[in-house]
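Ticket #440: bound-state structure for adenosine-5'-diphosphate.
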Amino acid sequence: MTVELTIISVGLGVIIGIFGGIARVSRNPLLLIPSTIYVEVIRGTPLLAQLFLVYFGLPSLGINLPPFTAAVIAMGINSGAYVTEIFRGGIQSIEKGQMEAARSLGLSYLQAMRYIILPQAFKRILPPLGNEFIAMLKDSSLASTIAIAELMRVGREITSRTFRSFEVLTVVALLYLAITLPLSLIVRYAERRMSVSD
Amino acid sequence: MIRLEKIYKRFGKLEVLRGIDLNIDKGEVVVIIGPSGAGKSTLLRCINLLERPTSGRVIFEGVDITKMDGRDIDKVRERIGMVFQHINLFNHLDVMDNVILAPMKVKGLSKGEAEQIARALLERMGLGDKLYAYPSQLSGGQRQRVAIARALAMQPDIMLFDEPTSALDPEMIKEVLDVMKALVNDGMTMAIVTHEMGFAKEVASRIIFMDDGCIVEEGTPKEIFSNPKEERTAMFLSKILY
Ligand SMILES: Nc1ncnc2c1ncn2[C@@H]1O[C@H](COP(=O)(O)OP(=O)(O)O)[C@@H](O)[C@H]1O
Ligand SMILES: [Mg+2]
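RESOLUTION: The complex was predicted; output attached.
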């Protein structure tokens, strides 16, 4: 269950990450801004909060998913943010001359990405991708043992006591987000300021 | 074939090109010389719009390409080959794939057609036995010859060379210059930035001396080398010719 969950989640994460990484190095604000927000929000909030939102938030919107599917979605989106940053780093590590040579031959930006930049970036990011896979393996045991079983149990209990369980839990999750998000963004901003100076 | 009109280029506050007017006719070999930082690379890169001029016009075959965008500029770049100081071969592809990629993906040639063109070019460059080597297995001179073949495989109308031998060990310079001379003899239109003055003297139909973002002086090799009109040209030449 855990391994299966990890493989599917990271697979989803890699697909998201390829497009996310391209968007993160884009000069087009329509790609750059949403992808940056996505990465910052996901990396700035705990996975547990994200699992919460998908488990209990979606049903409150009338979308009911089996726990495994919900876990895949939550973890895939979570992993996607980290893999996006891995791809961004990989793409930016390829010398500028490679893109220029490709463009000088008449290749479009996307063709140059596809045939020249991404294949080379992919080779370079295999080690960090491996690390991401291991991290996900740890996280998915969280999802499959604590989260799916525990949260569902808690969910059922609350459901049996109140008629508005999903709304209540969604509010709790959103409150949690509202507290953690600014905090973690501040921490990340501070981290970045420090890494610039050293 | 190419006309530059009042090209200005700024990077932030730095004005790198300051009103360049330059005409390159079909079959001409224009050699651009000048001190480092003069703006020679930036000028070449404005011709194929790797760098967008801040103002001014680049006219290719009668069409103002600075007004174009996206696909149209890609179409123009197909016809302008470029060779870089840092060579920039695609490191993950072997020699053959480096050369056939653009003809296939950009021009839509079949693999067979593209390989036929590539093989002929590479054999002419003396690389017939390196078709399936990777860039990391080649010497600098071999790599630069592959890069020239890669550009020629698109059958461009003009070739731009930005210090093609500056990053090479001395014993490899000649093999690259020889390939370029063969191109000159074929009648290829070329714009070449180089510090190889002997080569410039031999192949140039016109020499442009640039300094500080401007064209200071231009003329035939004889005029520039034996009889420079401008003080700055003479100074530069006396330094570079020892
Ligand atoms: N992308 C860039 N951003 C900022 N400055 C640049 C850039 N490219 C070139 N320059 C600056 O423009 C000036 C001219 O550069 P360049 O055209 O490479 O000169 P040359 O090829 O004659 O040595 C230099 O001062 C260089 O630092
Ligand atoms: Mg230069």
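RESOLUTION NOTES: The interface with chain B takes residues 95, 97-98, 100-108, 111, 115-116, 119-120, 123 of chain A (CB under 8 Å).
TICKET STATUS: resolved
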